[in-house]
Amino acid sequence: MTASKPAHVGFRAVSKTFPDGTQALKGVSFDVARGAFCVLLGPSGSGKSTLLRCVNGLATPTSGEVFIDGEAVTDKVLPQIRRKVSMIHQQFGLVDRASVAENMMGGALAEIPTWRALLGLYPDHFKTKACELLQSVGLSPEHLQRRAGDLSGGQRQRVGIARALMLDPQIIVADEPVASLDPRISQEIMELLRQAARLRGVTVLCSLHQVALAREHADQIVGLQRGALIFDSPVENLSDDDFSAIYDLEPLA
Amino acid sequence: MNPPRAGLSQETQWAYPKALSLKGIGLFCLIIAILLVTGRNVEMGRMVQLTASAVSVTATGQGESQVAQGLSKIGTSLWPLQISETTEVGRIEGFDRARLPWLAHIETRTKQTQTLNPDTLQMDSVSETAEYLVEPLGYLRHVAVKLVETLEIALWGTVIAILISLPLAFFSASNMAPNRLIYTVARSIVSFLRAIPELVSALFLVLAYGFGPIAGVLALALHAAGFLGKFYAEDIENADTKPQEALTAVGANRIKVLRFAILPQVMPQYIAYTLYVLDRNFRMATVIGLVGAGGIGQELKGRFDMYNYHHVATILVGIFCTVFVIDQLSARLRRRLF
Ligand SMILES: Nc1ncnc2c1ncn2[C@@H]1O[C@H](COP(=O)(O)OP(=O)(O)OP(=O)(O)O)[C@@H](O)[C@H]1O
Ligand SMILES: [Mg+2]
Q1: How far apart are the CA of A10 and the centre of ligand 1, in A?
Q2: Predicted confidence band at B166 (pLDDT cuts at 50, 70, 90)?
Q3: How far is A167 from A83, CA to CA, in rounded Å?
């Protein structure tokens, strides 16, 4: 297995104001150590997705910068950045009508010349890799030909994870990977993600709504509220009060 | 704690929208007014009156109706269909007596003609004998050949339309076009192509390419390219953006996103549009044949001008059958795809 070197991710005073005036992020700064599993917590609309999208350039900070191994994420270096950063999506981001095999190849598109991609002449090592990865996330050979839309939610997210590993990323950005799955499957998927990341040496940034899952799988917890960072510490230090503060709850009596 | 109470508090802002609003009633009146004015201009009143009298004359057998007379005249002149074909042997080039076409036989017919005898200045009855080749299904076969030719024109009109419309659709989809200028140019070309009816472009293309199928194919292709370009582009714009974003995040360029995230989504719709265009092209191919662009339309026009209404009837039935078959086939194909 080609374990790549996990990358360090740094956020420096990242702010994002959308054209309609919504302030999604307000000067967020924190660091994620190499190979750490960092979980973002925060109520809906607190800016978790926006922050994650700044890592691979799907969103551009209005001010401040994101650094990957000391290199700032700018439009100029986006192609290289996107090769290093894979994404896992809440709604899986798969093409429902296409086969699992085709969806897997989608994860390697950056490395496949356009003409080969158009003709479907995928390099053999990617075909082999797709099969290996699907096996490693617990799918079976008959799933290859199946339409992604015909799989269950849990199976789809397994494909999503396998796809994210196609190019041996140094960073995986996961935006609520288990938000539409039941508790048992959520647990399985988080374990899978955690295991894959550790095995391959990948830094993970993952937003979650389930505090229990965060406690169990995270190394580091980052709390956002209305776009501002209000908590950043190793998971051991997360107390019930911190949790209440993140979600703006009345402290439990 | 207050118990939950039915009814809204006095100072509430809540009001369920009314079904009939003043704006709605106004709009309704406006539409009725427009229909009344335009209906008068296109003589809808007279249409109803004429149709009604035709129906009553047919039902009761009393009175007179211009429409009923017209229709029955058409009916009687079309019936029966022309099935066979008879050709004078002398007019067939390189006629080979030993090898007659399928089911054909030779008949000798005598024709009486009245001519003025220049010596006697009397009308003489002269009987001429000529041999005729009679093919019992000859005209049917001729129509079938022409229908196939029309189908070929429609098919190639569709193929070329697809080839033209794919790049046009790419550049006239706002989420794919590289910049605003190219987008606007592509959109204008698509609108222009769609705005020119096949019949009009066929008139010009016949001047350029001469009579025959080339003009027909091009006329159909240009118009259909405008149609397909518009619908292909709209589907590209409306495709689910989540998979597109996922592939963008992977570092895929526009073309790869189109191929991997959009094409699988829009494919069934594209096939449906294309089948519709094939169907429409076949029907239009018969119309543009009227201006000499090949196919069954050209035959139809010829027969119509020669008052051969039995032949016309055969052609019409042939067209109907073909359209019906295409429709059935495409419905079956579509059901399998969705
Ligand atoms: N494209 C956009 N245009 C304008 N405002 C946006 C846009 N995307 C997000 N926002 C706003 O930015 C804020 C943060 O949104 P974001 O999606 O990052 O929140 P989130 O923490 O991911 O929420 P959730 O947990 O519901 O996914 C919200 O107020 C949202 O309405
Ligand atoms: Mg979100």
Answers
A1: 21
A2: very high
A3: 7
